[in-house]
Amino acid sequence: MSRRCTEPDSGIESLSADEHELETSCEESTGCVEELPAGEEQEKKESQPICNDSDGVDCLPRCEHCRKENVQREQVTPRKLCGGQYLMKLDSEGTYECSVTGLIFEVTKAVTINYSLLSWSKYAGLVEPPWVVGGPLFDVRCELPSTLTSIAFPHSLCLGGEYRHAVGTHRTTPRALTLPPRVPTDGGSPPAFKVLHIKGAGAAIEPSTDFSASHVRWLVSSLSPVGPLIRSEEPLLYHGAVVLYKAVDDDPSLLFRVYVATNNDSFIKDISRAVKHSKKKFIKIDKPPVCQKLLQNGKRYRLICEPEAEITPEEIEFVDGSLLKLKSYIEVYFEKPDDFTLSLVELDSDAVVWKAKLRESDWIHYDQNKNEQTRIPGNGAKTRCLLTDQQLMVIAKLFGVEWKEIAIECLQMEMKDIQQIQANEEEVNIQKFLMLSKWREREQSNGTAQALCNRLREKVSYEIVQALEENDIVK
């Protein structure tokens, strides 16, 4: 059962763990390896892009303070479901790490686990000082909750190597791992980690059993939204990320949004959601997001552009905006399009925190609504390929039992249309095919694979999105 706890002691027992590197694909753009001029080689080397499919940059980068830990643990790639959910099927007892989110599950036998990433801003009123957000918030569900003994949550703090241990490697028999509390070498107090366990309209702050350079471990009391909190007497240092978006319209000028964030999946997903709901259309610019230096809470930073551009505001004070519903950003405006370099620097030292070279090729030919590259034949006219009956049948067979709800919500079908289809056809796959065919007919010249993918992306399984984007359906 859940417990509401008093303030922690100055020391916290540490468990094993290692800095891990997440290697997954970005949802909105595909990373590529490019040859860089000599001047940019260091930028690429120090700021490797590590992206996930949850609208952003998922990663705990291998920073200079954390990279010494290199314990290997068994990683499992989950199945991606509609609505941003993940499903992981584990075949036996042990400890497993999700290759997409970084969550580490300790189970006593074979089990299926469902989980999804949540926004902290929805629960801002439940986080009170001196506690602050320490990492992403997850809702975890399990068919047999008693088999899930512990969860280790990735955090976005850099602990500078003073408290490094490793979160357990895969083992046949799960066991509680505890190590003596460690005292930092500078004589200060170690950070205190706990977890916020949200239950209905309220929440309890529960103890963590261990923490490491990359994770906070929690013994499962019950399953509902949970995320790590931290309290520290010292200034907090974060693994940071810079995320870029470009406005897309008919204006020849260039307008960018630059978000400076903690490397926290919940934060990054909130940014993506805010951009999608903006009155302007934006595309995400694929540049190495990971900061070369740590971000410090309360420290001031300046964004510099070469050649000069209009930057508003020119300086910011960094704070973790995870709990804020409205995410702050820096606006960069160019009257005339040209290649340029953006640099984020510390105001007090001029040290470069992040740097990227942007070129016209980073956004040219992209569709206004999505990161969709338009094919332009030799005569310069844009062409679109309508979905064929064969392609629609491939997609129809991938839909699950929720196809009617998706048709109404995403494709603006009416229930009477679905009922009419079901009355005239008994075979379910044909029903789904006829539904998609009706959508294609209504869309006319826009009945393309990309248009269908754009409509379905947020609600359908990863298999459907993959089929539309990769299996020769989207050309």
TrEMBL record:
Indicate whether Cytoplasm appears among the record's keywords: yes
Swiss-Prot/TrEMBL keywords: Cytoplasm
Per UniProt, residues of the FIIND domain are: 67-372
Q: Where is this region: Disordered?
A: 1-25
Q: Among the record's GO biological process terms, what is one? A: mRNA export from nucleus
Instruction: Enumerate the subcellular locations listed in this protein's record, separating them with semicolons.
Output: Cytoplasm, Cytosol
Q: Which residue range or ranges hold the Death domain?
A: 388-472
- The organism sits in which domain of life? Eukaryota
What are the GO cellular component annotations? cytosol; THO complex part of transcription export complex
**Claim: Manganese is one of the keywords in the record:** no
Q: Which named protein is this?
A: FIIND domain-containing protein
Q: Which organism is it from?
A: Callipepla squamata (Scaled quail)
